[in-house]
Specification:
- By secondary structure, this protein is an alpha/beta fold.
- It folds into two domains: 209 residues, Type I PLP-dependent aspartate aminotransferase-like (Major domain) (Aspartate Aminotransferase, domain 2, 3-Layer(aba) Sandwich), CATH 3.40.640.10; 88 residues, Aspartate Aminotransferase, domain 1 (Alpha-Beta Complex), CATH 3.90.1150.
- It has nine helices and 13 strands.
- Strands 1-9-8-7-4-2-3 form a seven-stranded mixed sheet, with helices on both faces.
- α7 packs parallel to α9.
- The longest helix has 20 residues.
- The protein binds pyridoxal-5'-phosphate (PLP).
- The site of pyridoxal-5'-phosphate has 14 residues, from α2.
- Pyridoxal-5'-phosphate binds next to α2.
Length: 301
């Protein structure tokens, strides 16, 4: 099912987003090791990215605040400012095997990547055999209005990781492998006791099979509705994000607004200085209106 939706060739099932990313990192490195030998294991990730809370995915995360307390961390990551094509090209030296990124940075502030920046990553892939690894843990499974967010950028990644909503709240992650990488995943090179267990897999089958074009269209419509509503609130400066993953830049302190919303029965997140909205993809129009009106009242107060 996932291969049908994504155009990828093979899937490995894990139990969380961080574990899926561990798999993505391992096989990006193995592709390079098998083909070129040692010395080409560096992965470029982006400043303000977030890839998980294991030692290696913390190292992959491009935020200094995650690089304290738990060291020593896994080596072999360098961090490129998002949307800086010159910096990207400069960093793409001979030791680099992959670029790993979120198409919309979630924890890092709901920052959209530019179309041209993603295309520059694709170009590096073609010219230097640097793998395109997309972290779709938060953006995947319909969240941005496409099945995967990379489908908004007209690219075909080599490796995709996903998790979160995929099994409707049951713990499941997946790493998807494209044409180039599919044979790198050999028996014994990776494994997981609970990965792909029948209970979580049944949950995932139920969810993934229901994310069809009509449902994706409804996500885009709700997104437009929310954006228009938000831009008419006094005190809202801008709205970023895609689909039902939106960041709201406001004049007030985001944490204080989130706390006030909670008191009124509305749960919103923050990301850096923004309010972050990640409603259930099947939220009804009435529920949306109820939530948006609380948010408006708190922001305008
Ligand atoms: C982009 C991204 N990658 C990885 C993770 C880690 O996923 P998990 O908490 O399932 O390990 C998250 C979680 O917030 C995420 O947003």
């Amino acid at each position: 099912l996932l291969c049908e939706k994504s155009g990828m060739e093979k899937v490995f099932f894990a139990n969380s987003g961080a574990e899926a990313n561990e798999g993505a990192i391992k096989f990006a490195r193995k592709y390079s090791f098998d083909k070129y030998g040692e010395g080409r294991s560096t992965i470029i990730t982006l400043v303000n990215s977030f890839h998980g809370r294991t030692i290696t995915t913390l190292a992959a995360t491009g935020q200094d605040s995650f690089h304290t307390t738990f060291g020593p961390f896994t080596q072999g990551f360098k961090y490129c400012p998002a949307n800086d094509i010159d910096a990207l090209n400069e960093m793409a030296t001979e030791d680099v095997c992959a670029v790993m990124f979120e198409c919309v940075q979630g924890e890092g502030g709901v920052n959209n990547l530019d179309y041209d920046f993603v295309k520059a990553i694709e170009k590096l892939g073609k010219e230097k055999d640097i793998l395109i690894v997309v972290d779709e843990v938060q953006t995947g499974n319909g969240r941005t209005g496409k099945y995967f967010a990379y489908q908004n950028f007209d690219i075909t990644p080599d490796i995709v990781s996903t998790a979160k909503g995929m099994a409707g709240g049951l713990p499941m992650g997946a790493v998807l492998f494209g044409e180039k990488v599919k044979d790198v995943v050999t028996a014994g090179s990776h494994g997981s006791t609970f990965g792909g267990n029948p209970i979580c897999a049944a949950g995932a089958c139920s969810i993934v099979s229901r994310i069809d074009n009509a449902f994706l269209e409804s996500i885009k419509e709700k997104s437009e509705y929310i954006k228009e509503f938000l831009m008419n609130i006094k005190g809202v400066k801008s709205v970023s994000g895609m689909g039902l993953m939106l960041g709201v830049e406001i004049e007030k302190d985001a944490k204080a607004v989130a706390n006030q919303c909670l008191e009124q029965g509305l749960l919103v997140l923050t990301a850096k200085t923004k309010i972050r909205l990640l409603p259930a993809l099947n939220i009804s129009k009435a529920e949306l209106d109820e939530g948006l009106n609380i948010l408006k009242e708190v922001i305008e107060q």
